[in-house]
Design a protein that fits this description.
The complex is a heterodimer of chains A (about 475) and B (about 475).
Chain A lengths: L9 E11 L38 H13 L3 E2 L2 E2 L2 E4 L9 E4 L10 E10 L2 E14 L3 E3 L9 E3 L6 E7 L6 H17 L12 E10 L9 E6 L2 H20 L8 E5 L4 E4 L12 E2 L6 E2 L2 H10 L4 H12 L3 H7 L3 H13 L3 H19 L10 H12 L5 H14 L3 H7 L8 H14 L1 H8 L3 H14 L6 H11 L4
Parallel strand pairs in A: 12-13
Antiparallel strand pairs in A: 1-10, 1-11, 2-6, 3-16, 4-5, 4-15, 6-7, 7-10, 8-9, 11-12, 13-14
Helix pairs in contact in A: 1-4, 2-3, 5-6, 7-8, 7-9, 9-10, 12-14, 12-15, 13-14, 14-15
Chain B lengths: L1 H4 L3 H10 L4 H19 L2 E4 L1 H17 L11 E5 L26 H8 L3 E6 L33 H8 L5 E6 L5 H7 L2 E4 L19 E6 L2 H11 L29 E5 L9 H16 L3 E5 L4 H19 L17 H12 L2 H14 L5 H24 L2 E5 L15 H6 L5 H6 L3 E9 L2 E8 L5 H15 L10
Parallel strand pairs in B: 2-3, 2-4, 7-8, 7-9
Antiparallel strand pairs in B: 1-3, 4-6, 5-6, 5-10, 9-11, 10-11
The chains are: A alpha+beta (about 475), B alpha/beta (about 475).
Chain lengths: ~475, ~475
């Protein structure tokens, strides 16, 4: 075989995304959904799969699934079913997972959607093959002491999940990442999921293959265990390069599941037996079909919050923001909400935007935090901005106050008072300081009188220094000129 | 004391009201009969003597004072098939794999029994996981027929039928997936009803085949059966397949007689394999019905032949999945192994009996990739045809009359090694499960000292009609007054 190094392979990527739904209770029982609870405290006969226990569909979970389906422009199935996916694994209490399989006569919750994403190469339409609901598994815990064996925490068992499967429409690892960012944003704005990969509320597997342009698609591999956006991009880049190397050697890509090793930055084939898993799907006889009529769909449609694209457009139109600022302010619902709530109390959109995207964003970046993790009610931010307008804080002092607000969860007025930070604008107090400064610096005083403005700036600086920066510069400027006879 | 041992539940409550009898006396008598008879019959797997005595003492104090406001089963001892969960009382399904397992919750029917005042006396024997027609497939030894201890009581609710027939309890719960209430009722000369699918909650019934399983009442006469059904029936939010259909007063409806009711007799009911004594007894019953003013018409259920094979695809398919949870990880038997899969395999190999293993393998095979269409889907289509047969029949008649089984009770061991012969015992009951209809078994004759059972099948949720016509027949024919020679 000729070594054709210059062959341009096209990357073909499809994603399977699991999203944890924002419900109060589990998919098929009343147990609470919550993180950090002691192991096996959020369980009941149903989610433990005890003999005799039966599942009942959580209507709120179906509703969130429908919301996501509508946000993704899917066709909602008027009647869909749950199925059992049978396999043995100890984190699966019943040794089957209740999921939705795609039979011709039993469609999943929704099919045929789309999501438009911005990529380096411009806008791209990614087709959504299907959206379905299922239950999560428990979690295996491996204690450091091997004598304790493996332990299982079933708190997560039965937590509602939605699986979103794309068509293989993504053409690069970067596009896969862009898609996930857009999907996460959509789900967050639709209030369907927190969409945090790091916490596992959004998980992604990828099918990767290569093909010559216009040619037949090569064998695909499934890449798993990517726990961050960065991991997705790097794992897929590695896998694309690996497959290319195999093909360029004249080899064959083997259809297999490969795991991303975050530390070594490689994908490796799982050591499980290579016999194909037969999940023996069949309709779940314990549950009745999900019937979605037009009325229900209309209710869900009406309850759908404003989605990112619409909100971004409205921010530009209503607040006169630049496309760039509007985009950043609609990165997460928390940012967008805080922006609007603050503007409602302090109607200067550009100022609010500048503070949010400048000082607040810088603080979050520096500390590696999300907006939801810091105490910043709109009223506080508005109050801070008002203090500047009232001349009680300089811009520089306001930045210090903001940091303290975020770090210590305090009101700006309280910080100003406690630290004696208030600006000095009082004429009498400032005249005393000015007199002292003028007495100490006869040279510059003479220079000013001789018409050298530079010396005036020097004297201003000395006054600010004497007041540790708290003097109101405008007042100082006015008083100095009065004193030195330069109106 | 025999009179009291064979008193109906209605008579017991009436006697409590007048003060003629106290619940403690009845419970002591029941415990005494169990102590004397159960070494022969082995109807019970667990007797909760302490719990029953405590409950009886509590009722002793109440029955006198609250005579006017007693719940329907106040102080009445009831036996519960051991595949129905009872909080604090072991529930084994007659399987080694669940030996010693104590449910942390009551099945909905058990909770309803307790609310109705019933005293749960103990748990009755069954074929392991309700898979069988003779109660020989119990891991803890067979139950024997009170009419002839050399013979089987039928199955799988053989323990409940024997306990009721032998005057140990007036009432018992069975479960019926393919005839498991009706066959033992027929073999033991008692009354048993399989309600419409969805009429009684399955929550807490350890699943065999979820789309076919129903819990049903067993008693010594139709009126007690009606009384017990009234307690069990009704919508349960914990069972998604339970029907939200009003529950009539079954007992009050019994008096209206059978005149004018149209009975359909399938010509297939007297086909090959039906013992002459059974055919004669059914024909004699038809004469009684005619005397009661019923119309008798010959009908046809042409697909009844397809019922048995369809059942032996669908029921094992569901069972293979339902029984997957018994893996030694969370509860029940655990047989250690070198690794996880060895532990699971050993636990299941040692924990399940041969018949259960046979059905798990049948079901696993039927659901396997490549066979799903040929077996599972085809069986589902056959099921639809069977249901359509009955629907057509019910356009012409109000009830369908069938034998319960082709023969009276057979000898222990007679069919134990011949699964196909054993499966044929259910030829007249299985189609009723596939169609989801109510079926009542009641005695209609004797052959060589063994009871023969008659089956009345009604339209969905028309248990009241089935019971009313059965009651009229029972009053006219008098077979229910016969008592077995044992004890």
């Amino acid at each position: 075989m000729a070594r054709d190094v210059a062959v341009a392979y096209e990357t073909v990527i499809g994603l399977e995304i699991h999203v944890q739904l924002l419900t109060a209770s589990k998919m098929f029982c009343g147990c609470a959904v919550s993180f950090g609870a002691p192991p096996n405290t959020l369980t009941c006969p149903v989610c433990l799969g005890l003999p005799g226990a039966l599942p009942v569909i959580n209507r709120a979970a179906v509703e969130l699934g429908l919301r996501a389906a509508l946000a993704l422009g899917c066709q909602v199935s008027p009647r869909s079913r749950f199925h059992r996916k049978n396999y043995f694994y100890p984190d699966l209490p019943k040794n089957y997972q209740i999921s939705q399989y795609q039979y011709a006569d039993h469609p999943p919750l929704a099919t045929d959607g789309r999501l438009e994403i911005a990529t380096e190469g411009g806008l791209r339409l990614v087709r959504i093959r299907r959206v379905h609901l299922e239950e999560d598994t428990g979690r295996l815990v491996h204690p450091d002491d091997p004598a304790r064996g493996s332990l299982i925490d079933y708190n997560r068992a039965g937590v509602p999940l939605m699986e979103i499967v794309t068509e293989p429409d993504l053409r690069s690892p970067a596009e896969a990442r862009d898609f996930l960012v857009a999907l996460r944003r959509l789900l967050q704005f639709a209030r369907v999921s927190t969409g945090r990969m790091e916490e596992g509320t959004l998980r992604c597997d990828a099918n990767v293959s290569l093909r010559r342009p216009g040619g037949v698609r090569g064998t695909r591999t499934e890449v798993k265990n990517m726990n961050s956006l960065r991991a997705v991009e790097r794992a897929l880049a590695f896998e694309v390069a690996r497959q290319r190397a195999v093909l360029e050697r004249g080899g064959e890509v083997v259809q297999e599941t490969r795991h991303w090793d975050e530390r070594r930055e490689v994908t490796f084939a799982s050591r499980t037996k290579e016999e194909a898993q037969d999940y023996r799907y069949f309709p779940e006889p314990d549950l009745v079909p999900i019937v979605v009529d037009e009325a229900w769909l209309a209710t869900v449609r009406a309850s759908l919050p404003e989605l990112p694209a619409a909100r971004r457009a409205r921010f530009m139109a209503a607040y006169g923001l630049s496309p760039y600022d509007a985009d950043l302010l609609t990165a997460t619902p928390a940012t967008a909400d805080l922006f609007e709530q603050t503007v409602a109390r302090y109607p200067a959109p550009k100022t609010v935007a500048n503070w949010l995207l400048g000082e607040v964003a810088a603080y979050l970046n520096e500390h590696g935090l999300e907006l939801e993790q810091v105490p910043l009610p709109a009223e506080r931010l508005a109050a801070l901005l008002r203090l500047i307008d009232q001349g009680r804080l300089s811009g520089r002092m306001a930045k210090e106050v903001l940091v303290e607000m975020l770090a210590h969860d305090r009101d700006p007025a309280a910080i100003v008072e406690a630290r004696g930070l208030a600006q000095i604008s009082d004429d009498a107090t400032l005249r005393e300081v000015i007199d002292r400064v003028l007495a100490e610096h006869p040279g510059p005083v003479a220079d000013v009188r001789a018409g050298k403005d530079k010396a005036l700036t020097f004297l201003m600086g000395q006054v600010m220094r004497a007041t540790q920066g708290r003097a109101n510069p405008e007042v100082v400027h006015r008083l100095l000129r009065e004193r030195l006879g330069r109106p | 004391m025999d009179e009291l041992a064979f008193a109906s539940a209605r008579d017991l409550v009436a006697a409590y009201r007048t003060g003629a009898v106290r619940p403690s006396q009845v419970v002591e008598l029941a415990l005494d009969r169990i102590a004397r008879l159960d070494p022969i019959l082995h109807a019970f797997l667990t007797v909760d003597a302490d719990g029953a005595r405590r409950a009886a003492a509590a009722w002793d104090a109440r029955v006198a004072g609250e005579a006017d406001a007693l719940p329907p089963l106040a102080g009445v001892p009831v036996a519960v098939k051991d595949n129905i969960c009872t909080r604090g009382i072991p529930t084994t399904c007659a399987s080694r794999i669940l030996e010693g397992w104590v449910p942390p919750y009551d099945a909905t029917v058990v909770a309803r029994l307790r609310t109705a005042g019933a005293i749960v006396l103990g748990k009755t024997n069954l074929d392991e996981f309700a898979m069988g027609s003779s109660t020989e497939h119990s891991a803890f030894g067979p139950t024997r027929n009170p009419w002839d201890p050399a013979r089987v009581p039928g199955g799988s609710s053989g323990g409940s039928a024997a306990a009721v027939a032998a005057g140990m309890v007036p009432l018992a719960l069975g479960s019926d997936t393919g005839g498991s209430v009706r066959l033992p009722a027929g073999f033991c000369g008692v009354v048993g009803l399989k309600p419409t699918y969805g009429r009684v909650s399955r929550y807490g019934l350890v699943a065999f085949a979820s789309s076919l399983d129903q819990i049903g009442p067993m008693a010594r006469d139709v009126a007690d059966c009606a009384l017990l059904l009234g307690v069990l029936a009704g919508h349960d939010p914990a069972d998604a397949t339970s029907a939200d259909v009003p529950v009539p007063d079954y007992l009050a409806a019994l008096g209206a007689g059978a005149a004018g009711v149209r009975l359909g007799v399938p010509r297939e009911a007297f086909g090959a394999g039906v013992a002459p004594a059974v055919a004669d007894a059914v024909r004699e019953a038809l004469r009684v019905f005619a005397d009661l003013g019923c119309g008798i018409e010959e009908i046809s259920l042409p697909t009844i032949d397809a019922a048995l094979p369809a059942y032996y695809i669908l029921a094992p398919a569901e069972a293979s999945s339902n029984l997957a949870r018994y893996d030694g990880v969370r509860y029940g038997l655990r047989v250690p192994g070198d690794d996880l899969s060895a532990m699971v395999a050993r636990t299941r190999r040692q924990g399940f009996g041969a018949e259960v293993q046979r059905r798990i393998m049948l079901g696993t095979y039927a659901l396997s990739a490549g066979y799903y269409e040929a077996y599972y889907l085809k069986a589902q289509r056959a099921r639809t045809l069977v249901a359509r047969d009955f629907a057509r029949a019910f356009e012409l008649v109000d009830l369908v009359v069938l034998p319960v089984a082709p023969t009276p009770a057979f000898r222990l061991g007679e069919k134990a090694d011949d699964p196909l012969q054993m499966y044929l015992s259910d030829i007249f009951t299985i189609s009723v499960n596939l169609a989801g209809l109510p079926g009542l078994a009641l005695p209609c004759g004797m052959a060589d000292g063994l009871p023969i059972g008659l089956q009345l099948v009604g339209r969905a949720f028309e248990e009241a009609t089935v019971l009313r016509v059965g009651h009229a027949y029972e009053q006219a024919a008098g077979w229910s007054r016969r008592r077995p020679p044992v004890g």
